[in-house]
Request: fold
Amino acid sequence: MTITVDRALSPKLLMGKPAPELTVQTLEGGSWSLADQSPKNYTMVLFYRGVHCPICAQYLTQLDQKLGVFEQMGVEAIAISGDSQDKAQQLQAQANLKNLTLGYGLTPEEMRRWGLYLSKGHFGKEPTLFSEPALFLIQPDGRLYLADIGTHPFARVDLDLLAKGLEFVIAANYPFRGTE
Reply:
């Protein structure tokens, strides 16, 4: 069997190395920059597909409800998509998000820089091009600690399992994984 590569559009990010640059506009007003973050333990960057995705809305609602648990562990979170400001506001209202910071306007080039899988819209409400979901944890020094990059909307990081894992990781000063 021969493996062929059609096109290489995005890099494979390496754990323990600096995260790509990231600056987005937020619904709270102004811009959010990864370089400006100073969490106690991690910055959680969650990329979601957009307002067209009901699974994303459910997942972001869960994260919004569990945000206090992560904040107590020194984890600050943002959820970002390629949606416009209007569409991000629509999702915020539909999902009844009260605490989670939403970033919007992520470009395809930025999506690729983060190694996200991109999809073409096939159904009426889908945008022409959007990213599939992903979750990253970035240490305060800017190095990538965890990456979970999806290809479909149907598989996501279990937030309860992540919280339990982070309790152990933080207490044990657990090393980087996936570096070899």
Notes: The chain has one domain: 23-30+38-171. The CA atoms of residues 16 and 167 lie 20 Å apart.
